[in-house]
Amino acid sequence: MTHESMRIADVVNRAENSFRVSEGTKRTYARSWEIVARELGDERLDEIHSEAFGRLRHQVVDDFLARKNQFELEHGRSHRTWTNGDALSDTFHNAIVKLFVLEGLEPPYLGRRNKARNSRREAIPFKTMQKVLELAPAIGPDPDLTEMVIDLLFETGARRHEILSLNHEHLNFEYNRLTIAGKGNSVRELPISRDLALRLRARPLKAINDTASASTPLLLRLDGTRFTGRSLDGIWERMRRALPDSVDAADKVSSHRVRYLTLTLVEREFSQEHARDFAGHKPMSTTAGYTKLVWTEKVFVHDHLFPHHPAANKASVATNPAATRISQFR
User: Fold this and answer.
1) With contact defined as beta carbons under 8 Å apart, do 182 and 280 qualify?
2) Angle (deg, nearest 10), helices 255-269 and 295-305
3) What is the chain's mean pLDDT, rounded?
């Protein structure tokens, strides 16, 4: 039986019994999965329309708000354990996305999600990022390094200090994987494209004419020294001068705005849970603290946003709007 021909109830059952899903995640999404299995369990993945999930989500939220309002009328207060409608809607959305990601399938579009409140995130516009990637091979005294640094920032969404501190011991070349040390002694693993992994591994041969040891910096200048924050600032200063005045936010391009773009894409196409895990952020709430992405889910997200990754599922990438936009950048 193929993934597409499976019943929704079977998909939910596989998720509930999957060793790839932590017990905390199962508890967080248990109620949502129960509702999906009860209301849409007999539907097949290749026949159900995304609108069915969207209608069910709205129905769940409406029913919850009705019960909450009735409780407040009867007791004069809200139940201390009840959340609000927006949080419930997001949890239900994330639970459905999780089912499809676990099966390696394209998540359905469930309608506009609730935006993060009081968000000050300001990403580089798509067209501006396109120009940045076009100009990168011609920026600075070492264009190869410039292109490598910008690709690394864009593919991982990592902070500037996180990529500057990387050594070759943090690169798993076999699995195209980077181990990144974040804030508060946190450590996360992120996928990169095979092309970028090849260029990172070959960099020492070009810079110091030697193979790399575990402690060799991943980003080396031509003189054999570590690439520094000052060097990165120089790249962005040159980039701002090179960008045409007609490009939106040309004077604001920076490492952090590239990070914002990557995280915005992940959140827009998948969920806040996925974006949080990529970003290396702490949990957004008590319940969100129990959700965690497994490695295969991270690769799935990366493959959809960056279809030049060798493990990308070309069939599903071709139908993904974000992947189409990103592929135009390359």
Assistant:
1) yes
2) 100
3) 77
